[in-house]
Amino acid sequence: MNVARILYPVRVLGPGERVGLWLCGCNRGCKGCSNPELWQRKPEFEISTDNLLRLIHKISDAHPVDGFTISGGEPFGQSQDLSEFVKQISVISDDILIYSGYKLETLRSRNDSATGYILDNVAVLIDGAYIEELNDNSLLKGSSNQKIHILNSGYSALYQRYLSETHNQIQNFTTADGIVSVGIHRKGF
Ligand code: SF4
User: Fold this and answer.
1) Which residue minimizes the CA distance to atom 8 of ligand 1?
2) How many C-beta atoms surround the C-beta of residue 151 within 10 A?
3) Residues in Cβ contact with 121 at an 8 Å cutoff, skipping those fewer than 6 apart
4) Residue with the nearest Cα to atom 3 of ligand 1?
């Protein structure tokens, strides 16, 4: 897989203390994208699914993991490896929230079992391209055209409560590569 970042505990992209992952590769080129450094896959970010899982288990062995948030880049650009990854992390938590620039209908219409597996096994998909003019500083959504699909009905109550009781926040992490600012940033950030 090509993964630029793993951060924990992410508290601003879904309920609880989450592992956040940012996958590389996206050719959409949305104006105002907050992660243009993730558009290109980079050799230094290549990691086998097994090694990625080892890192995840190091986190979950030492800390509570309430869920996972997978963003990018375009996560569904790596559907094959991602489906296996989703399968393996579900034993830690199946509260898996995933972002995609593709609409749910488009993903569903792919004749691709890996994409189907992901959609059948994640809790939430937030879909649609980022449109800077429609960034209204809302919780979880970069722009108002995007939609939050709760795909696992077992998580409906948790997410409805989270969406009604939480406001949008930014969380900054200090890493070896500098400060990484996580969350839905305001237009022009
Ligand atoms: S789909 Fe996401 S990562 Fe890709 S350009 Fe648009 S905002 Fe950036």
Assistant:
1) 33
2) 17
3) 86, 87, 90, 94, 96
4) 73
Does residue 189 surpass a pLDDT of 80?
no
pLDDT at 177: 85
- Please report which confidence band the pLDDT of residue 188 belongs to, taking 50, 70 and 90 as the band edges: confident
Which pTM value belongs to this model? 0.97
Spell out which residues line ligand 1, taking CB within 6 angstroms. Answer: 26, 28-30, 33, 35, 72-74, 101, 129-130
Q: What was the pLDDT predicted at 42?
A: 97
Report the b/e string of 71-92 with b at 16+ CB within 10 A: bbbbbbbbbebbbbbbeebeeb
Residue ranges and CATH numbers for the domains of the chain are: 3-183 (3.40.640)
